[in-house]
Records
---
Amino acid sequence: MTLLALIASGLRDALTFWLPLACAGCDAPDVSLCDGCRAALVPRPSRRHAGPSLPIVCGLRFEGIAARVIRAFKEEGRTALARDLAPALAAALAASVPPGARVTTVPSSSAAFRRRGYRPVDLLVRRAGRRPERLLRLRRSPEDQRGLGDRARRENVRGAFAARRPLDGAVVVVDDVVTTGATLAEAVRALRAAGATDVRAVALAHTPRRSGSRDESEVIMT
């Protein structure tokens, strides 16, 4: 861990000690996550599609309590919430990982790592009982995807990732939240270009389709 990451971790610990604790889902006092909000994180594996050839298995819908908890985990440094989010990701991985597959994650930028002091997706994968490998690297840092349409998102991440080494066999690539699937699709492309023969995509959560459009997610029976 770098010096900056250690400092960021120390600051998070200090804030946790001095600031009042509240539920990440509903702001109930004196608890990191209340029982009611924890129940809202029960895994609900479903399959979304990024184009005709890329199914993405997701553990939750990114809305309501789940969305608030994921934001607190990612943006407020509340890393202990990974324990509560991990079952949903574990369920999605269980529905996706073929025998012998390697698990990797969509890489985050150096600036994001310095700001947070940790890699959220890597932490989630470890809490879900898998060992993530750093098989991808950033060739360039895409712009923030928020507010972009489907085509703009695809263009924004085009060519952003490359494999760190030649690959073969099965690889599962994991992200935290999928909206259009453009980021995962580009990660899958880079892994296939490096030689991986069976590449699958998984996300902790997916955003529901915009109002007026059809939600094409398929519930996976477990």
---
Amino acid sequence: MHQIDELITLFERTFFATYNTRLVRGDVEPIYLPADDECNFHRIVFAHGFYASALHEIAHWLVAGQRRRQLEDYGYWYCPDGRDKAQQHEFENVEVHPQAIEWALCLAAGFTFNVSADNLGGEQTCRFSFQKRVYDKLLTLIEQGFNERTEQLLQALAQHYGQAYPLRREQLQWQPPKELDYAV
């Protein structure tokens, strides 16, 4: 049901003419590459043809402003897998907004969302606490609205996959466990 070629085509139809940006399969780590002397368009490179990876990388692009979209990987700090607890908290702070957007994209596409702490070889934090923060951000975005590019893609995905649009709070299936302490 969720074919990566469909997502690539949908993204291109929605954004290429206006933003000169393409969604590209990669063989290694995901990265955003702005147009340069070797390639005349911007590339959102996602990992190994995975649909979930593509949605995650698109979410980062949707969050990035015009200036950041001129920088490799949007000019963001990134510390690879193996982060200590403090680094992991900093990583999660940066990831809350893009993962909330990713969750919205998943809802619009009828695709299952999984929060990603992305630190398999490092110190773990409370996954439910992080997911609760992403959930809360998504609720805020649903209530206050998404930016124009995000709205464009949400509408295109919902139309393509026959999902309800605009997104509503009631579409969220996740309920945070009540017994956990969510202190960050």
